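Friendly challenge for the regulars: who can give me the structure tokens for this chain first? No prize, just bragging rights.
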Amino acid sequence: MFVPLFGIAQTNNVSSTFRVFPMPGKSMEFKKAIMAHVAKYHTTEKKWRIFEVMSGPDAGAFQFNEGPSSWEAIEKSPSNTDAHTTDWDKTVEIFIEKTSNVGYSVYNEKMSTVKLTDYSNHIIITHMYPSPGMVQTAWSIVEKQKKAYELGNESIAVYNVMASGEPHIAVVRRLKNGMKDLDATPAKSMPDRYREVNGPDSWAGYMEDYSKSIDRRWSEHLMFRADLSSK
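First reply, four minutes later:
Bragging rights claimed.
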């Protein structure tokens, strides 16, 4: 979707994700099965970082992140073995109600205020869906927000979600100090910070561009589950 994110050189900035929804009443069995499966098959090149979705429309789901990698490495990555697939089907799948499609997210260093692998245990993801024909304007909005985020000392990682159904921008706020970061109010509001870095009349222009270029958005809170993830 967002061509400016890519260069000719391959870089390790692509993560693949999918979400699963455990069957009601089978959460404990699901978690035990995941830990056993990960210990068997995801301790080398196909490591998983697993998040629990704590709020939003997918609350209760678990997100599996693999990578970061490059497109070339993803293409050449060995397929799951029969043993892996059989183990998943017989020990994990039996506790899953539904699974989402696999998605690809490309980290955009230029738009972000935090390094790709500078992770945190709690994250807030805002999913932004550009209106038709307004992709470049949507990206310019995100780019102009960066300095305002920096002024508020916010750790923001920006991703292009592509080749994964409806394309969109994912703006991930990493709560470096945990949930208490949501209580911390910067000395200046976002509109004030935005005006400071982009000009005194810039916020009105931002709101106008936003209303035209962003069709819709929604957000959610995810918590990293180190106990379930690859070691």
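Helices lie at 27-41, 71-76, 82-92, 135-151, 190-198, 202-213. The longest strand covers residues 214-224. Your move, everyone else.
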